[in-house]
Amino acid sequence: MTVEPIRCHIKERSLLALIAARKLKNPRAAVTLGKTIYLWNTDKQTFLSDKSWLQHELCHVNQFHHYGYFSFLFRYFIENIRHGYLNNKFETEARSAETGDFPGKRLYEFS
Ligand SMILES: [Zn+2]
Questions:
Q1: Ligand 1 centroid to 1 CA: how many Å?
Q2: Measured between alpha carbons, how far apart are the two ends of the chain, in Å?
Q3: How far is the CA of 4 from the centre of ligand 1 (A)?
């Protein structure tokens, strides 16, 4: 049985990612919602060639895939309220994914 790759979409110059960048006080940012990765102040090629950053966002793609879109969004925001952004368990998992594999890692296609 072949496992289909997850088709991700990458959107540059995203207002959502700009807001995240300002909030996190970072010059650039990526925000993942479902299978779409929104970028601010970086381009698709730079992002895709940054392996640890890519792995971080793909881990979020998998979290959405695992829990379902709205279920994950809900869980993520509850985690943020309870533990803050840095200690949010979904961010902790994504940070671990930067240097290694993560649960449910698949093949990905980008457009
Ligand atoms: Zn993250």
A1: 31
A2: 25
A3: 24
Question: Mutual orientation of helices 89-97 and 51-67 as an angle, nearest 10°?
Answer: 140
Amino acid at 100: G
Does the model's pTM come out above 0.85? yes
Largest CA distance in the chain: 45
Residue 71 has pLDDT above 90, yes or no: yes
Give me the pLDDT at residue 1, please.
Answer: 64
**Gap from CA of 57 to ligand 1 centroid (Å):** 6
Q: Which residues contact 74 (CB under 8 A, 6 or more apart)?
A: none
Measure 9 CA to ligand 1 centroid, in angstroms: 17
